Fold this sequence. Notes:
- The structure holds two protein chains of two kinds.
- By secondary structure, chain A is mostly helical.
- In chain A, a hairpin with a 5-residue loop joins strand 1 (54-60) and strand 2.
- In chain A, helix 5 (141-151) packs across helix 7, helix 7 crosses helix 9 (217-245) and helix 11 packs antiparallel against helix 12.
- In chain A, 67% of the residues lie in helices and 4% in strands.
- By secondary structure, chain B is an all-alpha fold.
- Chain B has a single domain, classed as MetI-like (MetI-like fold).
- Chain B has twelve helices and no strands.
- The longest helix of chain B has 32 residues, at 85-116.
- Chain B is globular and about 75 Å long.
- At the A-B interface, helix 1, helix 3, helix 4, helix 5 and helix 7 of A face helix 1, helix 2, helix 4, helix 5 and helix 6 of B.
Amino acid sequence: MTAAPIVPTLKTPRGRSTTPNEGRTASLLLSPTFLVLALVILYPLLSAVYQSLFSAESGLDEQGFVVEGDVFVGLRNYLDIFAGSESGRFYNALWNTSFFTFVSVALETVIGVAFAVAMNRAFRGRGFLRAAVLVPWAIPTAVSGLLWRWVFQSNGIVNTLTGTQVLWTAEGFASQVAVITAEVWKTAPFIGLLVLAGMQIIPEEVYEAAKLDGANAWKQFWSITLPMVRPALLVAVLFRMLDSLRMFDLPFVLIGPRKESVETLSILAWESSNQLEYGTASAFSIILLLYVAAIAFVFIKLLGADVVGSGAERKQRKARPAAAKGVSR
Amino acid sequence: MTATSVAARPAVAAPRTARPRRRSRLGPIGRVLAIIVIALYCLAPFYWMIVSSLRRTSDIFDNSLLPTTWSLESYAQVFSGSSNFGRALLNSLIVATTTTTLALALGIFAAYAISRLNFRFKSAILAIVIATSMFPGISVVVPLLRLFSDIGWINTYQAMIVPSLSFAIPLAVWNLTTFMKQLPYDLEEAAMIDGATKWQAFRKILLPLAAPGVFTTAILTFIHSWNEFIIALSMVNDPAVQTATVAISKFTGASEFEAPYGQQMAAGVIVTIPLVIVILFFQRRIVEGLTSGATK
């Protein structure tokens, strides 16, 4: 970093052109990883697409024998999902998934940024705060589901403190509030940590200059802090959204399966595969995957979330703009 | 950066912290208040779990801040009887450790290739790693559940370990790559000029330097695998093989309306305490890993 490369020598590995030898070594080193990824990602992906075109059916063939097995049904599974008699359940799950994702990520972002601002000011107790903030993140989601079910229990602490008699863990809007509360509690500190990291690389001089120009605290936050942490925040929000879209453990443990008001797409897919309806389950999981991909696309292409080129890469690009074409994008 | 900002303010005597900051608009009271609010937010629910786990079953519904009578009754119940919780903890340990070891073993070589070697399609490979980390768990579980039923893997450890690699490998590769990229190349180069092979330079120089990064990655991967739920729930229905997170969710009392909350809280504390200890010791590292390794 510090040593400026004045003389263009063969110093860094990036400076040289690709040698066939290195290419071979690289493929040798990368192949085990990609072999496993092919098994645990590519195979499931292809298999899900394939299976979603079949349906497990038992019927009679021409001779009148009972045939059991998969029948090719083309896109009928998808048609049934979108327009069949059970489609209401799908749209409900789609709505729940979207509702949980957008509401909880919005709340997390606001709380997370507030935490980051507060923690950035705190000198004493920073180590303690950092450990405290990691606790909700580290608690297994299944455990936090149980924890919040206990807290939201009908004669639990929430009803006692608020003096109400709400059945939070049954059904309806109250149970959605419970799920969102638990989700926000667990992940807002995580966003806080990421934003804090983004804030710590803002040079103090920028604030000095702004202060000289008479910008107040609020103005400084809106026109310096927020734009400067935008890249870190965008990536954090993207990953949180993708995580939230596949939400399963929390509603499953906190409220339970087969509860209409908290059934997400993941739970719906899981339920179908549990009933051995692999075709429908695969179709659900493909739809969820497309949803996730669409959100990722919006964030990366339209909002410009710099997913690959963060951290060290970004610093290098700044230091050596000429050498930094295409490595990261 | 520090040097310039200190030089710009020669009148101010010896800043106490390495990075002088002087935006103290909040004042000391506001700052303490902020710390208290954050700490309460993060720790109060966890505290409630611990307190509840230490109550007797008979006064589990008390809402006092400390148990009126301290009791380890719930903990005793967790390990007694049919719940087989000790076994579940062991299963979790086996699955998480194996997953972490495999992911690291593969990830170290992949990360070395990405951070140190020149080859085509590097950006495509990084993009694939990122894309795989966005893959929803259920999309892995549904097809593999069917495959594993066909080959008789249901109720085995490998049925949980192999799918867990789908999130563990991207996590490990990504974290290790960002870490190795930050390490200077000069030392390895010097060694190679002195006649060391690439393999020796990797083993004798890069690997020891990367040890902290490998350690951080191991912690993060382990925590993720330890907390995994949907794979373990789907692939296993035999209580002898199921992991702790699944075992907890299946704790049931005598009737449906009488959930054994005390036991659940005690089991939750037991599953979480190892992680909290790890956090207390390695919080700085974990935060570094979480933030520098992009956002996983």
